[in-house]
Write a structure and sequence with these properties.
Blueprint (H helix, E strand, L loop, with lengths): L2 H9 L5 H12 L12 H8 L3 H14 L2 E5 L10 E4 L1 H9 L2 H11 L47 H23 L11 H8 L3 H20 L8 H6 L18 E2 L4 H12 L10 H9 L6 H12 L2 H13 L3 E2 L3 H7 L2 E5 L3 H13 L12 E5 L6 H20 L1
Antiparallel strand pairs: 1-2, 3-4, 5-6
Helix pairs in contact: 1-2, 1-5, 2-3, 3-4, 7-8, 11-15
Amino acid sequence: MSAFLLGIGFRADMGTCARKLVLLKLIDACDDDGSRIFPAISTIARAAQCSTRQVQRELKAFLDIGLIRLVREGGKGPRSTNEYTLDLDVLHLLGKGGWALVAADRAGNGEEKKGDTVSPLEGDEKGDTGDSKRVTPETPKGDKLSHPTPQDPSLDPSVEREREREDGKKIDAEGWALLKDWPGFAGMPKEPALKVWRGLEPVERAEAARLFPHWLALLKAQRKTHTPAPSSYFGQKLWREVPEPPVAAPKPAYAPAFGPVWAAIRMRDLVTGPKQATPLKPWEERSLADGTMKLDRHTLEKANRLRGGWPMVNALDLAAETRGLGIHGFGVEEEQIGKLCEFVPIGSEVWQAWKLEHEMRGWPWLPDPGTMPGVYFPAGGPAGLEAFEQAVRGNHDASGREAAE
Protein backbone atom coordinates (compact mmCIF):
# COMPACT_ATOMS: atom_id res chain seq x y z
CA MET A 1 0.00 0.00 0.00
CA SER A 2 1.26 3.52 -0.84
CA ALA A 3 0.37 6.08 1.84
CA PHE A 4 1.29 8.90 -0.55
CA LEU A 5 -1.02 7.69 -3.33
CA LEU A 6 -3.74 6.94 -0.78
CA GLY A 7 -3.80 10.60 0.21
CA ILE A 8 -4.23 11.61 -3.44
CA GLY A 9 -6.95 9.01 -3.83
CA PHE A 10 -8.91 10.43 -0.91
CA ARG A 11 -8.79 13.90 -2.50
CA ALA A 12 -9.87 12.61 -5.91
CA ASP A 13 -13.44 13.48 -6.94
CA MET A 14 -14.67 10.23 -8.49
CA GLY A 15 -18.32 11.18 -8.97
CA THR A 16 -19.81 8.18 -7.10
CA CYS A 17 -19.16 6.39 -3.81
CA ALA A 18 -18.65 3.01 -5.48
CA ARG A 19 -16.12 4.42 -7.94
CA LYS A 20 -14.22 6.08 -5.09
CA LEU A 21 -14.09 2.87 -3.04
CA VAL A 22 -12.89 0.84 -6.04
CA LEU A 23 -10.10 3.37 -6.62
CA LEU A 24 -9.05 3.26 -2.96
CA LYS A 25 -8.91 -0.54 -3.04
CA LEU A 26 -6.68 -0.42 -6.15
CA ILE A 27 -4.36 2.04 -4.41
CA ASP A 28 -4.45 -0.17 -1.32
CA ALA A 29 -3.01 -3.04 -3.38
CA CYS A 30 -0.40 -1.12 -5.45
CA ASP A 31 3.25 -0.15 -5.02
CA ASP A 32 4.39 3.46 -4.54
CA ASP A 33 4.72 3.96 -8.31
CA GLY A 34 1.18 2.74 -8.93
CA SER A 35 2.22 -0.65 -10.33
CA ARG A 36 1.55 -4.29 -9.42
CA ILE A 37 -2.23 -4.09 -9.01
CA PHE A 38 -3.84 -7.51 -9.31
CA PRO A 39 -6.51 -8.15 -6.65
CA ALA A 40 -9.39 -10.41 -7.63
CA ILE A 41 -12.69 -8.85 -8.70
CA SER A 42 -14.44 -10.44 -5.71
CA THR A 43 -11.81 -8.99 -3.35
CA ILE A 44 -12.43 -5.48 -4.68
CA ALA A 45 -16.19 -6.04 -4.46
CA ARG A 46 -15.94 -7.01 -0.78
CA ALA A 47 -13.79 -3.99 0.04
CA ALA A 48 -16.05 -1.57 -1.89
CA GLN A 49 -19.22 -3.31 -0.66
CA CYS A 50 -20.72 -3.58 -4.11
CA SER A 51 -21.38 -6.32 -6.67
CA THR A 52 -18.74 -7.85 -8.91
CA ARG A 53 -20.62 -6.49 -11.95
CA GLN A 54 -20.28 -2.97 -10.50
CA VAL A 55 -16.54 -3.48 -10.04
CA GLN A 56 -16.18 -4.66 -13.66
CA ARG A 57 -18.04 -1.57 -14.90
CA GLU A 58 -15.83 0.77 -12.85
CA LEU A 59 -12.62 -0.91 -14.03
CA LYS A 60 -13.74 -0.50 -17.64
CA ALA A 61 -14.45 3.19 -16.96
CA PHE A 62 -10.98 3.56 -15.43
CA LEU A 63 -9.47 2.00 -18.55
CA ASP A 64 -11.52 4.27 -20.82
CA ILE A 65 -10.24 7.48 -19.22
CA GLY A 66 -6.69 6.14 -18.86
CA LEU A 67 -6.64 6.02 -15.06
CA ILE A 68 -5.38 2.42 -15.21
CA ARG A 69 -3.57 0.45 -17.91
CA LEU A 70 -3.66 -3.29 -18.46
CA VAL A 71 -0.15 -4.67 -17.94
CA ARG A 72 -0.85 -8.39 -18.12
CA GLU A 73 -4.07 -10.22 -18.87
CA GLY A 74 -4.89 -13.09 -16.55
CA GLY A 75 -5.95 -16.56 -17.61
CA LYS A 76 -9.50 -17.75 -17.99
CA GLY A 77 -9.67 -19.63 -14.69
CA PRO A 78 -11.61 -18.31 -11.69
CA ARG A 79 -8.42 -17.66 -9.68
CA SER A 80 -6.38 -15.84 -12.34
CA THR A 81 -6.48 -12.03 -12.33
CA ASN A 82 -5.44 -9.19 -14.60
CA GLU A 83 -2.55 -6.95 -13.58
CA TYR A 84 -2.99 -3.17 -13.84
CA THR A 85 -0.93 -0.07 -13.19
CA LEU A 86 -2.17 3.38 -12.23
CA ASP A 87 -1.49 6.46 -14.40
CA LEU A 88 -0.41 8.92 -11.71
CA ASP A 89 -0.92 11.95 -13.98
CA VAL A 90 -4.57 11.07 -14.47
CA LEU A 91 -4.90 10.44 -10.72
CA HIS A 92 -3.60 13.99 -10.05
CA LEU A 93 -6.08 15.36 -12.63
CA LEU A 94 -8.96 13.69 -10.78
CA GLY A 95 -7.84 15.47 -7.62
CA LYS A 96 -7.86 18.82 -9.40
CA GLY A 97 -10.77 18.69 -11.82
CA GLY A 98 -12.86 15.68 -10.81
CA TRP A 99 -14.25 12.73 -12.72
CA ALA A 100 -16.78 14.63 -14.84
CA LEU A 101 -14.22 17.04 -16.28
CA VAL A 102 -11.55 14.40 -16.91
CA ALA A 103 -14.02 11.96 -18.48
CA ALA A 104 -15.47 14.69 -20.72
CA ASP A 105 -12.01 15.76 -21.81
CA ARG A 106 -10.98 12.20 -22.69
CA ALA A 107 -14.21 11.56 -24.53
CA GLY A 108 -13.87 14.79 -26.54
CA ASN A 109 -10.27 14.35 -27.70
CA GLY A 110 -9.88 10.60 -27.78
CA GLU A 111 -6.36 10.88 -26.34
CA GLU A 112 -4.70 11.51 -23.04
CA LYS A 113 -3.89 15.04 -21.89
CA LYS A 114 -1.32 15.42 -19.15
CA GLY A 115 -0.76 18.32 -16.83
CA ASP A 116 -3.05 21.00 -15.41
CA THR A 117 -6.06 21.44 -17.68
CA VAL A 118 -8.31 23.32 -15.32
CA SER A 119 -6.30 26.28 -13.96
CA PRO A 120 -8.30 29.45 -14.80
CA LEU A 121 -5.41 31.33 -16.39
CA GLU A 122 -5.63 33.04 -19.75
CA GLY A 123 -2.71 33.49 -22.14
CA ASP A 124 -0.30 31.25 -20.28
CA GLU A 125 0.61 27.72 -21.13
CA LYS A 126 -1.26 25.17 -19.05
CA GLY A 127 0.31 22.28 -17.19
CA ASP A 128 3.89 21.24 -16.65
CA THR A 129 5.72 21.49 -19.94
CA GLY A 130 9.37 20.88 -19.20
CA ASP A 131 11.79 23.80 -18.58
CA SER A 132 9.33 26.59 -19.37
CA LYS A 133 7.63 28.69 -16.75
CA ARG A 134 5.44 26.48 -14.53
CA VAL A 135 1.82 27.44 -14.06
CA THR A 136 1.59 25.34 -10.91
CA PRO A 137 4.68 25.42 -8.68
CA GLU A 138 6.46 22.19 -7.99
CA THR A 139 6.00 20.88 -4.47
CA PRO A 140 7.86 18.15 -2.59
CA LYS A 141 6.36 14.75 -3.08
CA GLY A 142 5.56 12.38 -0.25
CA ASP A 143 5.85 12.55 3.53
CA LYS A 144 9.54 13.13 4.35
CA LEU A 145 9.20 13.24 8.14
CA SER A 146 7.19 10.22 9.26
CA HIS A 147 8.34 6.63 9.17
CA PRO A 148 6.93 4.61 6.28
CA THR A 149 3.97 2.46 7.19
CA PRO A 150 5.00 -1.21 7.15
CA GLN A 151 3.11 -3.25 4.64
CA ASP A 152 0.22 -5.22 6.09
CA PRO A 153 0.63 -8.85 5.00
CA SER A 154 -3.11 -9.05 4.49
CA LEU A 155 -2.79 -6.45 1.72
CA ASP A 156 -0.21 -8.44 -0.22
CA PRO A 157 -1.84 -9.50 -3.50
CA SER A 158 -0.29 -12.96 -3.27
CA VAL A 159 -1.79 -13.44 0.21
CA GLU A 160 -5.18 -12.29 -1.04
CA ARG A 161 -5.02 -14.70 -3.98
CA GLU A 162 -4.18 -17.54 -1.58
CA ARG A 163 -7.13 -16.53 0.58
CA GLU A 164 -9.34 -16.59 -2.49
CA ARG A 165 -8.14 -20.11 -3.31
CA GLU A 166 -8.85 -21.28 0.24
CA ASP A 167 -12.33 -19.75 0.13
CA GLY A 168 -12.96 -21.45 -3.21
CA LYS A 169 -11.91 -24.85 -1.87
CA LYS A 170 -14.21 -24.44 1.12
CA ILE A 171 -17.14 -23.44 -1.11
CA ASP A 172 -16.53 -26.44 -3.39
CA ALA A 173 -16.28 -28.83 -0.43
CA GLU A 174 -19.58 -27.59 0.97
CA GLY A 175 -21.19 -27.99 -2.46
CA TRP A 176 -19.90 -31.53 -2.95
CA ALA A 177 -21.19 -32.46 0.51
CA LEU A 178 -24.70 -31.82 -0.81
CA LEU A 179 -24.16 -33.17 -4.32
CA LYS A 180 -22.39 -36.48 -3.71
CA ASP A 181 -25.49 -38.33 -2.46
CA TRP A 182 -28.15 -36.44 -4.39
CA PRO A 183 -31.19 -38.75 -4.66
CA GLY A 184 -31.71 -40.16 -8.15
CA PHE A 185 -28.52 -38.67 -9.64
CA ALA A 186 -25.89 -41.27 -8.75
CA GLY A 187 -23.17 -41.43 -11.40
CA MET A 188 -24.42 -38.35 -13.26
CA PRO A 189 -22.18 -35.28 -13.83
CA LYS A 190 -22.58 -32.69 -11.12
CA GLU A 191 -20.14 -30.00 -12.33
CA PRO A 192 -22.96 -27.85 -13.82
CA ALA A 193 -24.69 -27.82 -10.44
CA LEU A 194 -21.42 -27.00 -8.68
CA LYS A 195 -20.97 -24.02 -11.00
CA VAL A 196 -24.42 -22.72 -10.04
CA TRP A 197 -23.56 -23.35 -6.37
CA ARG A 198 -20.45 -21.17 -6.66
CA GLY A 199 -22.55 -18.33 -8.05
CA LEU A 200 -24.80 -18.17 -4.99
CA GLU A 201 -24.29 -15.58 -2.29
CA PRO A 202 -22.83 -16.91 1.00
CA VAL A 203 -26.17 -16.47 2.79
CA GLU A 204 -27.94 -18.38 0.02
CA ARG A 205 -25.46 -21.26 0.19
CA ALA A 206 -25.95 -21.51 3.95
CA GLU A 207 -29.74 -21.56 3.60
CA ALA A 208 -29.61 -24.09 0.75
CA ALA A 209 -27.52 -26.47 2.88
CA ARG A 210 -29.54 -25.96 6.07
CA LEU A 211 -32.93 -26.55 4.42
CA PHE A 212 -31.84 -29.35 2.07
CA PRO A 213 -32.95 -32.29 4.30
CA HIS A 214 -36.23 -30.49 5.03
CA TRP A 215 -36.74 -29.99 1.29
CA LEU A 216 -36.30 -33.73 0.70
CA ALA A 217 -38.76 -34.44 3.50
CA LEU A 218 -41.24 -32.04 1.89
CA LEU A 219 -40.94 -33.84 -1.48
CA LYS A 220 -41.57 -37.14 0.26
CA ALA A 221 -44.61 -35.75 2.09
CA GLN A 222 -45.96 -34.44 -1.23
CA ARG A 223 -45.39 -37.91 -2.75
CA LYS A 224 -43.10 -36.55 -5.44
CA THR A 225 -41.72 -39.43 -7.53
CA HIS A 226 -38.88 -37.43 -9.06
CA THR A 227 -36.29 -35.32 -7.28
CA PRO A 228 -35.41 -32.12 -9.20
CA ALA A 229 -31.85 -31.81 -10.49
CA PRO A 230 -29.27 -30.16 -8.22
CA SER A 231 -28.83 -27.28 -10.67
CA SER A 232 -32.57 -26.61 -10.42
CA TYR A 233 -32.46 -26.65 -6.63
CA PHE A 234 -29.62 -24.11 -6.61
CA GLY A 235 -30.57 -22.06 -9.66
CA GLN A 236 -34.30 -21.75 -8.90
CA LYS A 237 -33.63 -21.45 -5.14
CA LEU A 238 -36.14 -24.20 -4.40
CA TRP A 239 -35.27 -24.20 -0.71
CA ARG A 240 -37.40 -21.07 -0.41
CA GLU A 241 -40.47 -23.28 -0.87
CA VAL A 242 -39.69 -25.10 2.39
CA PRO A 243 -41.58 -23.85 5.47
CA GLU A 244 -39.27 -22.88 8.27
CA PRO A 245 -38.84 -26.09 10.31
CA PRO A 246 -39.99 -25.90 13.94
CA VAL A 247 -37.31 -25.44 16.54
CA ALA A 248 -36.76 -28.69 18.40
CA ALA A 249 -37.49 -28.51 22.11
CA PRO A 250 -34.31 -28.74 24.19
CA LYS A 251 -33.69 -32.13 25.72
CA PRO A 252 -34.22 -32.24 29.48
CA ALA A 253 -31.08 -32.24 31.55
CA TYR A 254 -29.87 -35.66 32.70
CA ALA A 255 -27.65 -36.53 35.64
CA PRO A 256 -26.24 -40.11 35.67
CA ALA A 257 -26.55 -42.21 38.79
CA PHE A 258 -23.80 -41.75 41.39
CA GLY A 259 -22.57 -38.58 39.65
CA PRO A 260 -22.18 -35.17 41.34
CA VAL A 261 -25.67 -33.78 40.58
CA TRP A 262 -27.36 -37.11 41.38
CA ALA A 263 -25.46 -37.32 44.69
CA ALA A 264 -26.26 -33.69 45.56
CA ILE A 265 -30.01 -34.16 44.95
CA ARG A 266 -30.00 -37.37 46.98
CA MET A 267 -28.07 -35.83 49.86
CA ARG A 268 -30.27 -32.71 49.84
CA ASP A 269 -33.31 -34.92 50.40
CA LEU A 270 -31.57 -36.66 53.29
CA VAL A 271 -30.33 -33.59 55.19
CA THR A 272 -33.71 -31.85 55.07
CA GLY A 273 -35.22 -34.69 57.12
CA PRO A 274 -37.80 -37.45 56.59
CA LYS A 275 -40.60 -36.43 54.26
CA GLN A 276 -43.40 -38.41 55.91
CA ALA A 277 -44.22 -39.92 59.31
CA THR A 278 -43.49 -43.62 59.69
CA PRO A 279 -45.50 -44.88 62.69
CA LEU A 280 -45.44 -48.51 63.66
CA LYS A 281 -48.06 -50.74 62.14
CA PRO A 282 -50.84 -52.09 64.41
CA TRP A 283 -49.47 -55.62 64.35
CA GLU A 284 -46.04 -54.28 65.35
CA GLU A 285 -47.58 -52.43 68.29
CA ARG A 286 -49.41 -55.62 69.40
CA SER A 287 -46.24 -57.68 69.08
CA LEU A 288 -44.35 -55.21 71.23
CA ALA A 289 -47.16 -55.20 73.81
CA ASP A 290 -47.46 -58.97 74.20
CA GLY A 291 -43.67 -59.52 74.05
CA THR A 292 -43.65 -61.64 70.89
CA MET A 293 -41.60 -59.01 68.92
CA LYS A 294 -37.89 -59.80 69.09
CA LEU A 295 -36.90 -56.25 68.07
CA ASP A 296 -37.24 -53.16 70.23
CA ARG A 297 -39.30 -50.06 69.34
CA HIS A 298 -36.27 -47.98 68.30
CA THR A 299 -35.08 -50.61 65.82
CA LEU A 300 -38.56 -50.97 64.35
CA GLU A 301 -39.02 -47.21 63.97
CA LYS A 302 -35.58 -46.87 62.32
CA ALA A 303 -36.38 -49.65 59.81
CA ASN A 304 -39.74 -48.04 58.94
CA ARG A 305 -38.08 -44.66 58.48
CA LEU A 306 -35.51 -46.19 56.12
CA ARG A 307 -38.26 -47.74 54.02
CA GLY A 308 -40.67 -44.81 53.87
CA GLY A 309 -39.11 -41.64 55.29
CA TRP A 310 -37.38 -40.55 52.10
CA PRO A 311 -39.52 -41.72 49.15
CA MET A 312 -37.48 -39.80 46.58
CA VAL A 313 -34.19 -41.25 47.82
CA ASN A 314 -35.67 -44.74 47.73
CA ALA A 315 -36.92 -44.15 44.17
CA LEU A 316 -33.46 -42.88 43.06
CA ASP A 317 -31.76 -45.88 44.66
CA LEU A 318 -34.16 -48.37 43.06
CA ALA A 319 -33.80 -46.84 39.56
CA ALA A 320 -30.00 -46.77 39.87
CA GLU A 321 -29.70 -50.34 41.17
CA THR A 322 -32.18 -52.08 38.87
CA ARG A 323 -31.88 -50.09 35.62
CA GLY A 324 -28.79 -47.91 36.02
CA LEU A 325 -30.87 -44.75 35.57
CA GLY A 326 -30.11 -41.25 36.86
CA ILE A 327 -32.25 -38.11 37.11
CA HIS A 328 -34.01 -36.19 34.31
CA GLY A 329 -35.18 -32.59 34.33
CA PHE A 330 -33.24 -30.86 37.11
CA GLY A 331 -32.52 -27.12 37.21
CA VAL A 332 -29.77 -24.57 37.80
CA GLU A 333 -29.95 -24.93 41.57
CA GLU A 334 -29.17 -28.66 41.33
CA GLU A 335 -26.24 -27.94 39.01
CA GLN A 336 -24.85 -25.48 41.56
CA ILE A 337 -25.04 -27.83 44.54
CA GLY A 338 -23.58 -30.59 42.35
CA LYS A 339 -20.39 -28.50 42.24
CA LEU A 340 -20.14 -28.92 46.04
CA CYS A 341 -19.54 -32.66 45.66
CA GLU A 342 -16.31 -34.60 45.16
CA PHE A 343 -15.36 -38.04 43.87
CA VAL A 344 -14.88 -40.69 46.59
CA PRO A 345 -13.27 -44.05 45.63
CA ILE A 346 -15.19 -47.12 46.78
CA GLY A 347 -13.64 -48.75 49.84
CA SER A 348 -11.52 -45.71 50.76
CA GLU A 349 -11.42 -44.20 54.27
CA VAL A 350 -13.77 -41.40 53.17
CA TRP A 351 -16.15 -44.01 51.73
CA GLN A 352 -16.19 -45.89 55.06
CA ALA A 353 -16.71 -42.61 56.96
CA TRP A 354 -19.75 -41.80 54.82
CA LYS A 355 -21.17 -45.27 55.37
CA LEU A 356 -20.83 -44.86 59.13
CA GLU A 357 -22.43 -41.40 58.95
CA HIS A 358 -25.46 -42.86 57.18
CA GLU A 359 -25.83 -45.54 59.86
CA MET A 360 -25.58 -43.00 62.69
CA ARG A 361 -28.17 -40.69 61.14
CA GLY A 362 -30.52 -43.51 60.16
CA TRP A 363 -30.22 -42.72 56.43
CA PRO A 364 -30.61 -45.34 53.70
CA TRP A 365 -27.20 -46.32 52.35
CA LEU A 366 -26.30 -46.24 48.66
CA PRO A 367 -27.38 -49.03 46.32
CA ASP A 368 -24.71 -51.24 44.78
CA PRO A 369 -22.71 -49.07 42.33
CA GLY A 370 -21.65 -52.13 40.33
CA THR A 371 -18.33 -51.76 38.52
CA MET A 372 -18.00 -48.02 39.15
CA PRO A 373 -14.66 -47.08 40.77
CA GLY A 374 -16.30 -44.51 43.01
CA VAL A 375 -19.25 -42.23 43.67
CA TYR A 376 -19.79 -38.59 44.64
CA PHE A 377 -20.45 -37.14 48.10
CA PRO A 378 -20.36 -33.58 49.51
CA ALA A 379 -16.78 -32.33 49.55
CA GLY A 380 -14.78 -32.65 52.75
CA GLY A 381 -16.25 -35.94 53.96
CA PRO A 382 -18.85 -36.05 56.75
CA ALA A 383 -17.09 -33.06 58.37
CA GLY A 384 -18.10 -30.93 55.36
CA LEU A 385 -21.74 -31.95 55.58
CA GLU A 386 -22.68 -28.89 57.66
CA ALA A 387 -21.48 -26.48 54.95
CA PHE A 388 -23.36 -28.48 52.34
CA GLU A 389 -26.55 -28.43 54.44
CA GLN A 390 -26.27 -24.64 54.93
CA ALA A 391 -25.92 -24.13 51.17
CA VAL A 392 -28.88 -26.39 50.46
CA ARG A 393 -31.12 -24.78 53.09
CA GLY A 394 -30.04 -21.30 51.93
CA ASN A 395 -31.09 -22.03 48.35
CA HIS A 396 -34.33 -23.60 49.61
CA ASP A 397 -35.17 -20.58 51.78
CA ALA A 398 -34.31 -18.13 48.97
CA SER A 399 -36.53 -19.94 46.48
CA GLY A 400 -39.33 -20.00 49.09
CA ARG A 401 -39.06 -16.23 49.59
CA GLU A 402 -39.15 -15.62 45.83
CA ALA A 403 -42.26 -17.78 45.52
CA ALA A 404 -43.94 -15.87 48.38
CA GLU A 405 -43.10 -12.51 46.81
